[in-house]
Amino acid sequence: MNTAIAPDVKFEDLNLRFAEVFARIADTAVAREQERELAFEAVQWLRDAGFGGLRVPLTQGGLGASLPQLFELLIKLGEADSNLPQIVRAHFGFVEGRLSSRDTDSQEYWLAKAAEGQLWGAAMAERTDTTRNSVTLTAVEPGNTEAGWLLNGEKYYCTGTLYADWIAAVALDGDDFVSLAVPTDAPGVTVEDDWDGFGQRLTGSGTTRFKDVHVPDAHIVRRFKKDELRAESYLSAFYQLFHLATLTGIANAVLRDATTFVKGRTRGFGIPGQSSPKDDPLVQRVIGRLSSLAYSARTQVLAVAHVLQDVYEAEQGGYAIEQHYTEAEIRAYQAQQIVLEQVLEATTLLFEVGGASATSETRRFDRHWRNARTLASHNPAIYRERALGNFYLNDITPNAAWRTLQAADAEQQANGARDEASAV
Fold it and tell me: Is the CATH number of domain 235-404 3.90.1640.10?
Protein backbone atom coordinates (compact mmCIF):
# COMPACT_ATOMS: atom_id res chain seq x y z
CA MET A 1 0.00 0.00 0.00
CA ASN A 2 1.35 3.39 -0.98
CA THR A 3 1.62 5.71 2.02
CA ALA A 4 3.17 8.65 0.18
CA ILE A 5 2.39 12.08 1.53
CA ALA A 6 0.87 14.71 -0.72
CA PRO A 7 3.49 16.34 -2.97
CA ASP A 8 4.39 19.98 -2.57
CA VAL A 9 3.37 20.81 -6.12
CA LYS A 10 0.51 19.67 -8.37
CA PHE A 11 1.38 17.57 -11.40
CA GLU A 12 -0.97 19.69 -13.53
CA ASP A 13 1.19 22.73 -12.82
CA LEU A 14 4.40 20.90 -13.68
CA ASN A 15 2.88 19.46 -16.84
CA LEU A 16 1.72 22.91 -17.94
CA ARG A 17 5.19 24.35 -17.26
CA PHE A 18 6.90 21.88 -19.60
CA ALA A 19 4.19 21.14 -22.19
CA GLU A 20 5.37 23.75 -24.70
CA VAL A 21 9.02 22.70 -24.33
CA PHE A 22 8.13 19.04 -24.87
CA ALA A 23 6.11 20.00 -27.95
CA ARG A 24 9.08 21.88 -29.43
CA ILE A 25 11.36 18.93 -28.73
CA ALA A 26 8.91 16.55 -30.43
CA ASP A 27 8.54 18.82 -33.48
CA THR A 28 12.32 18.83 -34.04
CA ALA A 29 13.09 15.20 -33.09
CA VAL A 30 12.98 13.70 -36.59
CA ALA A 31 15.21 16.43 -38.03
CA ARG A 32 17.80 15.82 -35.30
CA GLU A 33 17.69 12.10 -36.02
CA GLN A 34 18.06 12.55 -39.78
CA GLU A 35 21.04 14.89 -39.48
CA ARG A 36 22.48 13.33 -36.32
CA GLU A 37 22.35 16.81 -34.85
CA LEU A 38 23.33 16.76 -31.20
CA ALA A 39 20.54 18.01 -28.94
CA PHE A 40 22.24 21.09 -27.51
CA GLU A 41 19.28 23.33 -28.32
CA ALA A 42 16.72 20.93 -26.84
CA VAL A 43 18.78 20.54 -23.65
CA GLN A 44 18.96 24.32 -23.36
CA TRP A 45 15.17 24.54 -23.62
CA LEU A 46 14.88 22.12 -20.72
CA ARG A 47 17.51 23.99 -18.76
CA ASP A 48 15.75 27.33 -19.30
CA ALA A 49 12.47 25.83 -18.10
CA GLY A 50 14.07 24.59 -14.89
CA PHE A 51 13.75 20.89 -15.69
CA GLY A 52 16.97 19.98 -13.89
CA GLY A 53 15.58 21.35 -10.63
CA LEU A 54 12.51 19.12 -10.59
CA ARG A 55 13.57 17.07 -7.58
CA VAL A 56 15.20 19.93 -5.68
CA PRO A 57 12.91 20.90 -2.78
CA LEU A 58 10.97 24.16 -3.01
CA THR A 59 12.79 25.41 0.08
CA GLN A 60 16.08 25.06 -1.79
CA GLY A 61 14.98 26.81 -4.96
CA GLY A 62 13.75 23.80 -6.93
CA LEU A 63 10.35 22.65 -8.16
CA GLY A 64 9.68 20.10 -5.40
CA ALA A 65 8.45 17.26 -7.63
CA SER A 66 7.78 13.83 -6.16
CA LEU A 67 9.31 10.74 -7.76
CA PRO A 68 6.03 9.69 -9.44
CA GLN A 69 5.73 13.21 -10.87
CA LEU A 70 9.32 13.09 -12.12
CA PHE A 71 8.82 9.77 -13.89
CA GLU A 72 5.52 10.83 -15.42
CA LEU A 73 7.26 13.87 -16.91
CA LEU A 74 10.13 11.68 -18.10
CA ILE A 75 7.63 9.51 -19.96
CA LYS A 76 6.32 12.61 -21.71
CA LEU A 77 9.85 13.77 -22.50
CA GLY A 78 10.69 10.31 -23.84
CA GLU A 79 7.65 10.49 -26.09
CA ALA A 80 8.95 13.77 -27.47
CA ASP A 81 12.50 12.46 -28.02
CA SER A 82 13.87 9.39 -26.24
CA ASN A 83 17.41 10.78 -26.31
CA LEU A 84 16.53 13.52 -23.84
CA PRO A 85 15.64 11.48 -20.73
CA GLN A 86 18.83 9.48 -21.12
CA ILE A 87 20.86 12.68 -21.48
CA VAL A 88 19.61 13.92 -18.08
CA ARG A 89 19.67 10.50 -16.35
CA ALA A 90 23.06 11.04 -14.71
CA HIS A 91 21.97 14.51 -13.61
CA PHE A 92 18.91 13.25 -11.79
CA GLY A 93 20.89 10.35 -10.35
CA PHE A 94 23.39 12.82 -8.90
CA VAL A 95 20.62 14.97 -7.47
CA GLU A 96 18.84 11.95 -6.00
CA GLY A 97 22.09 10.87 -4.39
CA ARG A 98 22.38 14.23 -2.71
CA LEU A 99 18.78 14.06 -1.52
CA SER A 100 19.60 10.72 0.11
CA SER A 101 22.82 12.02 1.63
CA ARG A 102 23.19 12.58 5.36
CA ASP A 103 25.76 15.31 4.68
CA THR A 104 23.58 18.42 4.82
CA ASP A 105 26.36 20.86 3.93
CA SER A 106 27.26 18.90 0.78
CA GLN A 107 23.58 18.50 -0.04
CA GLU A 108 22.91 22.23 0.13
CA TYR A 109 26.05 23.05 -1.87
CA TRP A 110 25.17 20.78 -4.80
CA LEU A 111 21.39 21.16 -4.81
CA ALA A 112 21.80 24.94 -5.06
CA LYS A 113 23.71 24.44 -8.31
CA ALA A 114 21.02 22.13 -9.67
CA ALA A 115 18.35 24.69 -8.78
CA GLU A 116 20.34 27.30 -10.74
CA GLY A 117 20.05 25.15 -13.87
CA GLN A 118 23.44 23.44 -13.85
CA LEU A 119 23.47 19.89 -15.21
CA TRP A 120 25.53 16.77 -14.55
CA GLY A 121 26.79 14.04 -16.85
CA ALA A 122 28.45 10.78 -15.80
CA ALA A 123 31.89 9.21 -16.02
CA MET A 124 31.59 5.81 -14.36
CA ALA A 125 32.13 2.94 -16.82
CA GLU A 126 35.35 1.83 -18.47
CA ARG A 127 36.41 -0.32 -21.42
CA THR A 128 38.61 -2.85 -19.67
CA ASP A 129 39.00 -6.62 -19.63
CA THR A 130 37.44 -6.84 -16.17
CA THR A 131 35.06 -4.75 -14.09
CA ARG A 132 37.63 -2.44 -12.56
CA ASN A 133 38.19 1.22 -11.89
CA SER A 134 41.48 2.43 -13.36
CA VAL A 135 40.91 6.18 -12.99
CA THR A 136 43.06 7.49 -10.16
CA LEU A 137 42.92 10.35 -7.70
CA THR A 138 46.19 11.41 -6.09
CA ALA A 139 46.94 14.12 -3.57
CA VAL A 140 48.63 17.25 -4.85
CA GLU A 141 52.26 17.31 -3.69
CA PRO A 142 52.97 19.49 -0.64
CA GLY A 143 54.08 22.98 -1.54
CA ASN A 144 51.91 23.18 -4.65
CA THR A 145 50.05 26.46 -4.93
CA GLU A 146 46.73 24.59 -5.33
CA ALA A 147 45.83 22.10 -2.61
CA GLY A 148 43.56 19.20 -3.46
CA TRP A 149 43.79 16.29 -5.83
CA LEU A 150 44.74 15.29 -9.38
CA LEU A 151 42.43 13.12 -11.48
CA ASN A 152 43.82 10.92 -14.28
CA GLY A 153 42.34 8.25 -16.52
CA GLU A 154 39.61 7.51 -19.04
CA LYS A 155 35.91 6.66 -18.85
CA TYR A 156 33.46 5.50 -21.48
CA TYR A 157 29.63 5.48 -21.86
CA CYS A 158 29.68 8.98 -20.36
CA THR A 159 26.04 9.73 -21.08
CA GLY A 160 25.00 13.37 -21.05
CA THR A 161 28.49 14.72 -20.41
CA LEU A 162 28.64 16.57 -23.74
CA TYR A 163 25.69 18.67 -22.60
CA ALA A 164 26.58 19.07 -18.94
CA ASP A 165 28.27 21.61 -16.68
CA TRP A 166 29.59 18.94 -14.33
CA ILE A 167 30.82 15.36 -14.53
CA ALA A 168 29.93 12.93 -11.75
CA ALA A 169 32.88 10.54 -11.70
CA VAL A 170 34.32 7.75 -9.58
CA ALA A 171 38.03 7.14 -9.03
CA LEU A 172 40.48 5.22 -6.86
CA ASP A 173 42.67 6.78 -4.21
CA GLY A 174 44.73 3.80 -3.15
CA ASP A 175 42.14 1.28 -1.98
CA ASP A 176 39.47 3.92 -1.43
CA PHE A 177 36.69 4.60 -3.89
CA VAL A 178 35.97 8.29 -4.33
CA SER A 179 32.91 9.93 -5.84
CA LEU A 180 33.63 13.41 -7.11
CA ALA A 181 32.37 16.17 -9.37
CA VAL A 182 34.45 17.92 -12.03
CA PRO A 183 33.45 20.88 -14.24
CA THR A 184 33.28 19.82 -17.89
CA ASP A 185 35.39 22.86 -18.83
CA ALA A 186 38.14 22.18 -16.26
CA PRO A 187 41.69 22.14 -17.68
CA GLY A 188 42.65 18.57 -18.57
CA VAL A 189 39.09 17.35 -19.29
CA THR A 190 38.39 16.04 -22.81
CA VAL A 191 34.91 14.91 -23.84
CA GLU A 192 34.42 13.06 -27.14
CA ASP A 193 31.26 12.20 -29.07
CA ASP A 194 32.38 8.72 -30.14
CA TRP A 195 29.31 6.69 -29.15
CA ASP A 196 28.68 4.31 -32.08
CA GLY A 197 25.48 2.54 -31.04
CA PHE A 198 22.75 2.25 -33.67
CA GLY A 199 20.21 3.78 -31.28
CA GLN A 200 20.08 6.65 -28.81
CA ARG A 201 22.66 8.27 -31.06
CA LEU A 202 22.33 11.78 -29.67
CA THR A 203 22.90 11.01 -25.99
CA GLY A 204 26.59 11.94 -25.98
CA SER A 205 27.51 8.57 -24.46
CA GLY A 206 31.15 8.76 -25.49
CA THR A 207 34.60 8.97 -23.95
CA THR A 208 35.80 11.32 -21.22
CA ARG A 209 39.51 11.68 -20.47
CA PHE A 210 41.14 13.25 -17.43
CA LYS A 211 44.72 14.50 -17.56
CA ASP A 212 46.00 15.97 -14.27
CA VAL A 213 42.60 17.52 -13.61
CA HIS A 214 42.66 19.52 -10.38
CA VAL A 215 39.92 18.56 -7.91
CA PRO A 216 39.51 20.72 -4.78
CA ASP A 217 38.36 19.15 -1.52
CA ALA A 218 34.94 20.75 -1.90
CA HIS A 219 34.29 18.64 -5.01
CA ILE A 220 34.91 15.31 -3.29
CA VAL A 221 31.37 14.06 -2.84
CA ARG A 222 31.95 10.79 -1.01
CA ARG A 223 34.81 8.51 0.01
CA PHE A 224 34.29 4.86 0.92
CA LYS A 225 36.09 1.54 1.28
CA LYS A 226 35.68 -1.38 -1.11
CA ASP A 227 33.48 -3.27 1.34
CA GLU A 228 31.24 -0.19 1.57
CA LEU A 229 30.78 0.06 -2.17
CA ARG A 230 27.17 -1.09 -2.20
CA ALA A 231 25.35 0.49 0.69
CA GLU A 232 21.60 -0.02 0.87
CA SER A 233 20.03 2.43 -1.56
CA TYR A 234 17.13 2.84 -3.95
CA LEU A 235 19.41 4.47 -6.55
CA SER A 236 20.00 1.28 -8.53
CA ALA A 237 16.24 0.88 -8.98
CA PHE A 238 15.99 4.61 -9.70
CA TYR A 239 18.52 4.40 -12.54
CA GLN A 240 16.85 1.35 -14.07
CA LEU A 241 13.39 2.93 -13.84
CA PHE A 242 14.77 5.88 -15.80
CA HIS A 243 15.30 3.57 -18.78
CA LEU A 244 11.85 2.05 -18.36
CA ALA A 245 10.26 5.51 -18.32
CA THR A 246 12.12 6.38 -21.52
CA LEU A 247 10.94 3.13 -23.11
CA THR A 248 7.39 3.94 -22.08
CA GLY A 249 7.77 7.30 -23.79
CA ILE A 250 8.79 5.43 -26.94
CA ALA A 251 5.64 3.28 -26.69
CA ASN A 252 3.56 6.46 -26.46
CA ALA A 253 5.38 7.91 -29.48
CA VAL A 254 4.70 4.71 -31.43
CA LEU A 255 0.98 4.99 -30.66
CA ARG A 256 1.02 8.67 -31.63
CA ASP A 257 2.86 8.09 -34.90
CA ALA A 258 0.82 5.02 -35.87
CA THR A 259 -2.46 6.82 -35.22
CA THR A 260 -1.42 9.92 -37.15
CA PHE A 261 -0.14 7.79 -40.02
CA VAL A 262 -3.34 5.77 -40.34
CA LYS A 263 -5.65 8.78 -40.13
CA GLY A 264 -3.92 10.34 -43.13
CA ARG A 265 -4.13 7.29 -45.39
CA THR A 266 -6.72 6.80 -48.13
CA ARG A 267 -5.74 3.35 -49.39
CA GLY A 268 -5.18 -0.08 -47.91
CA PHE A 269 -3.40 -3.21 -49.06
CA GLY A 270 -5.55 -5.48 -51.25
CA ILE A 271 -8.47 -3.02 -51.44
CA PRO A 272 -9.16 -1.51 -54.89
CA GLY A 273 -9.62 2.22 -55.23
CA GLN A 274 -9.79 4.66 -52.37
CA SER A 275 -10.44 3.27 -48.89
CA SER A 276 -10.35 4.27 -45.23
CA PRO A 277 -7.73 2.28 -43.29
CA LYS A 278 -8.86 3.91 -40.03
CA ASP A 279 -12.17 2.05 -40.43
CA ASP A 280 -10.49 -1.29 -41.17
CA PRO A 281 -11.09 -3.68 -38.22
CA LEU A 282 -7.62 -5.21 -38.63
CA VAL A 283 -5.92 -1.83 -38.48
CA GLN A 284 -8.09 -0.85 -35.52
CA ARG A 285 -6.96 -4.03 -33.80
CA VAL A 286 -3.28 -3.08 -34.23
CA ILE A 287 -3.88 0.42 -32.88
CA GLY A 288 -5.80 -1.07 -29.97
CA ARG A 289 -2.89 -3.35 -29.17
CA LEU A 290 -0.42 -0.45 -29.33
CA SER A 291 -2.58 1.56 -26.93
CA SER A 292 -2.68 -1.37 -24.50
CA LEU A 293 1.08 -1.88 -24.62
CA ALA A 294 1.70 1.82 -23.92
CA TYR A 295 -0.83 1.86 -21.08
CA SER A 296 0.65 -1.25 -19.49
CA ALA A 297 4.19 0.13 -19.60
CA ARG A 298 3.13 3.44 -18.08
CA THR A 299 1.17 1.73 -15.32
CA GLN A 300 4.15 -0.38 -14.31
CA VAL A 301 6.62 2.50 -14.35
CA LEU A 302 4.42 4.69 -12.16
CA ALA A 303 3.74 1.80 -9.78
CA VAL A 304 7.49 1.37 -9.22
CA ALA A 305 7.88 5.15 -8.92
CA HIS A 306 5.44 5.09 -6.00
CA VAL A 307 7.52 2.35 -4.36
CA LEU A 308 10.61 4.54 -4.74
CA GLN A 309 8.72 7.46 -3.25
CA ASP A 310 7.88 5.33 -0.21
CA VAL A 311 11.57 4.45 0.22
CA TYR A 312 12.61 8.08 -0.18
CA GLU A 313 10.12 9.17 2.47
CA ALA A 314 11.26 6.37 4.78
CA GLU A 315 14.83 7.65 4.42
CA GLN A 316 13.82 11.22 5.07
CA GLY A 317 11.81 10.10 8.08
CA GLY A 318 14.66 8.01 9.46
CA TYR A 319 12.75 4.71 9.44
CA ALA A 320 14.09 3.06 6.25
CA ILE A 321 15.01 -0.62 6.67
CA GLU A 322 16.43 -3.28 4.36
CA GLN A 323 12.94 -4.35 3.31
CA HIS A 324 12.33 -0.93 1.75
CA TYR A 325 15.39 -1.22 -0.49
CA THR A 326 14.69 -4.83 -1.41
CA GLU A 327 11.14 -3.92 -2.39
CA ALA A 328 12.42 -1.16 -4.68
CA GLU A 329 14.87 -3.43 -6.48
CA ILE A 330 12.48 -6.36 -6.82
CA ARG A 331 9.69 -4.21 -8.26
CA ALA A 332 12.06 -2.49 -10.69
CA TYR A 333 13.41 -5.87 -11.84
CA GLN A 334 9.90 -7.25 -12.32
CA ALA A 335 8.82 -4.23 -14.34
CA GLN A 336 11.91 -4.66 -16.54
CA GLN A 337 10.88 -8.15 -17.60
CA ILE A 338 7.53 -6.94 -18.92
CA VAL A 339 8.15 -3.38 -20.12
CA LEU A 340 11.15 -4.29 -22.29
CA GLU A 341 9.23 -6.95 -24.20
CA GLN A 342 6.08 -4.88 -24.51
CA VAL A 343 7.80 -1.81 -25.90
CA LEU A 344 9.91 -3.81 -28.33
CA GLU A 345 6.71 -5.48 -29.52
CA ALA A 346 5.12 -2.07 -30.03
CA THR A 347 8.04 -0.71 -32.06
CA THR A 348 7.73 -3.65 -34.47
CA LEU A 349 3.94 -3.78 -34.56
CA LEU A 350 3.92 -0.14 -35.69
CA PHE A 351 4.85 -1.21 -39.22
CA GLU A 352 1.76 -3.43 -39.56
CA VAL A 353 -0.44 -0.37 -40.07
CA GLY A 354 1.28 1.06 -43.12
CA GLY A 355 3.14 -1.36 -45.34
CA ALA A 356 6.26 -0.24 -47.15
CA SER A 357 5.35 3.45 -46.96
CA ALA A 358 5.83 3.32 -43.18
CA THR A 359 9.52 2.61 -43.76
CA SER A 360 10.14 5.99 -45.39
CA GLU A 361 13.20 7.70 -43.95
CA THR A 362 11.28 10.97 -43.91
CA ARG A 363 9.26 9.57 -41.01
CA ARG A 364 12.12 7.75 -39.25
CA PHE A 365 9.78 5.28 -37.58
CA ASP A 366 12.80 2.98 -37.38
CA ARG A 367 14.23 5.21 -34.65
CA HIS A 368 11.65 3.87 -32.23
CA TRP A 369 12.86 0.26 -32.55
CA ARG A 370 16.55 1.22 -32.65
CA ASN A 371 16.24 3.41 -29.59
CA ALA A 372 14.12 0.89 -27.69
CA ARG A 373 16.47 -1.97 -28.51
CA THR A 374 19.48 0.08 -27.40
CA LEU A 375 17.80 1.11 -24.15
CA ALA A 376 16.71 -2.46 -23.48
CA SER A 377 20.33 -3.54 -23.83
CA HIS A 378 21.22 -1.20 -20.96
CA ASN A 379 19.03 -3.34 -18.71
CA PRO A 380 20.63 -6.78 -18.08
CA ALA A 381 17.18 -8.36 -18.06
CA ILE A 382 18.28 -12.00 -18.07
CA TYR A 383 20.43 -11.44 -14.98
CA ARG A 384 17.62 -9.60 -13.25
CA GLU A 385 15.18 -12.39 -14.06
CA ARG A 386 17.56 -14.87 -12.46
CA ALA A 387 17.92 -12.57 -9.42
CA LEU A 388 14.14 -12.58 -9.04
CA GLY A 389 14.05 -16.37 -9.11
CA ASN A 390 16.85 -16.56 -6.56
CA PHE A 391 14.94 -14.19 -4.30
CA TYR A 392 11.64 -16.05 -4.45
CA LEU A 393 13.18 -19.50 -4.21
CA ASN A 394 16.00 -18.89 -1.73
CA ASP A 395 15.17 -15.57 -0.01
CA ILE A 396 18.45 -14.11 -1.29
CA THR A 397 18.03 -10.42 -1.99
CA PRO A 398 19.71 -8.82 -5.01
CA ASN A 399 21.89 -6.81 -2.65
CA ALA A 400 23.01 -9.94 -0.75
CA ALA A 401 23.78 -11.74 -4.01
CA TRP A 402 25.86 -8.80 -5.18
CA ARG A 403 27.81 -8.71 -1.93
CA THR A 404 28.60 -12.43 -2.29
CA LEU A 405 30.01 -11.82 -5.76
CA GLN A 406 31.98 -8.84 -4.49
CA ALA A 407 33.51 -10.91 -1.67
CA ALA A 408 34.45 -13.70 -4.07
CA ASP A 409 36.12 -11.19 -6.39
CA ALA A 410 38.06 -9.64 -3.49
CA GLU A 411 39.25 -13.09 -2.41
CA GLN A 412 40.33 -13.91 -5.96
CA GLN A 413 42.32 -10.67 -6.15
CA ALA A 414 43.96 -11.37 -2.79
CA ASN A 415 44.92 -14.89 -3.86
CA GLY A 416 46.38 -13.53 -7.09
CA ALA A 417 48.43 -10.99 -5.17
CA ARG A 418 49.76 -13.69 -2.82
CA ASP A 419 50.67 -15.95 -5.74
CA GLU A 420 52.46 -13.08 -7.45
CA ALA A 421 54.39 -12.26 -4.26
CA SER A 422 55.45 -15.87 -3.70
CA ALA A 423 56.79 -16.10 -7.25
CA VAL A 424 59.19 -13.20 -6.72
Answer: no
